[in-house]
UniProtKB/TrEMBL annotation:
The keyword Nucleotide-binding does not apply. It comes from Novosphingobium clariflavum. SMART domains: HTH_ARAC (SM00342). Coiled coil: none annotated. This is Helix-turn-helix domain-containing protein. InterPro entries: Homeodomain-like_sf, HTH_AraC, HTH_AraC-typ_CS, Tscrpt_reg_AraC-type_HTH. Gene3D superfamilies: Homeodomain-like.
Length: 345
């Protein structure tokens, strides 16, 4: 549940420097914080903690400033990354490399390890609002590998079509707005997912746009999806896939050759891989080997056991006893596997 980090008005506006880090001065990092002198002062910052991460919603009717100098960095070397979602007004960031100004709908990542000046400016509506997330940089580095010391800016994300950032903002906003019903582990999972989406969005924006896919590539994707959906059906066959994808069996074979595989090899590889994962993640008391065999599309447990041992060198029961480390990777196991339609029985 969110709590008030600080609140300022005309009566206590000059106390901003002393209260912006919270009652125990544990949020953010050291710096100079002040509020522009204005007829109306209404600043409110609310915080939701999720482990070492803080999700903060900050609203203000006047411009806000935050400066971090080299002296502050010497006194407090905390390395935090701040994820800024600009909801209202403008966000101005300047350092020794220059200045950047972004507006509503933009996304910025800043770090505490370089001197900077930040200004949250009010917009046409008369106030500014940002949702920002403070996270130890070592935690974020697993998702965002780019150097953000000079501020990483993603401008006009909605117009540029980056849905990952919009979804990440919603996830973080939902965690912030939770009224206490969300358990801590679920909140952590949602925050971690949001970080993953942000990292994916940054990578996509840096990569060149992929070339348009050919008709054959699109058809192959449809075929692979159909096989994935119907993998548990023991009647799965080339005729069934061709009919379901509205192509000829000959064209199906051509498409699979683009992937350098045959129909039987692809289906067996997927079925045995899923069976292996299922065996390793399940308890024998909860699900039997026979149920797993039928669940991945085998017609009989005996057939499943023979094929599993043929590929991995151990039967399913032995695998459950010995563990995954004792068996080869499925890609290696299929290296000398000739496959053939006769195996799909």
């Amino acid at each position: 549940m969110a709590e008030t980090l600080f609140a300022l008005d005309r009566r206590n506006v000059h106390e901003g420097q002393n209260v912006f880090r919270g009652e125990r001065a544990q949020e953010y990092y050291r710096g100079d914080f002040w509020v522009e002198d204005a007829p109306t002062v209404d600043v409110r910052s609310e915080r939701r903690a999720v482990g070492a991460v803080s999700i903060i919603r900050q609203r203000s009717s006047s411009n806000l400033f935050f400066r971090r100098s080299r002296q502050h960095i010497r006194e407090d070397a905390t390395d935090l990354s701040i994820l800024w979602f600009v909801r209202r007004g403008e966000f101005a960031f300047s350092n020794q490399c220059g200045a950047k100004i972004v507006g509503e709908g933009d996304f910025v990542i800043t770090r505490s390890t370089e001197p900077f000046l930040i200004e949250c400016r009010t917009g046409p509506a008369g106030f500014s609002e940002v949702l920002h997330v403070t996270v130890p940089t070592h935690m974020l580095r697993g998702h965002v590998t780019q150097d953000c010391s000079g501020a990483l800016v993603v401008s006009d994300v909605r117009v540029r079509g980056v849905p990952e950032l919009a979804i990440a903002e919603k996830l973080l906003g939902d965690v912030f707005a939770d009224d206490g019903r969300l358990c801590d582990s679920s909140a952590r999972l949602l925050v971690e997912t949001a970080f993953g989406l942000i990292g994916q969005a940054v990578r996509l924006l840096e990569e060149p746009r992929p070339a348009r896919r050919s008709i054959a590539e699109r058809r192959l994707e449809e075929v692979l999806r159909f096989i994935e959906v119907h993998l548990s059906d023991p009647q799965l066959s080339t005729a069934m896939v061709a009919k379901g994808c509205r192509i000829s069996p000959r064209y199906l074979s051509f498409l699979l050759r683009l992937r350098e595989t045959s129909f039987s090899e692809l289906v067996w590889e997927q079925r045995l891989a899923k069976a292996r994962d299922w065996l390793s993640s399940s308890d024998p008391r909860d699900i039997s080997i026979s149920e797993i065999a039928y669940g991945v599309g085998f017609k009989s447990p005996a057939h499943f056991s023979r094929m599993f041992k043929r590929v991995f060198g151990a039967n399913p029961r032995e695998y459950r006893g010995e563990g995954a480390a004792a068996l080869p990777l499925i890609a290696d196991a299929f290296g000398d596997f000739s496959g053939g339609s006769s195996l799909l029985q």
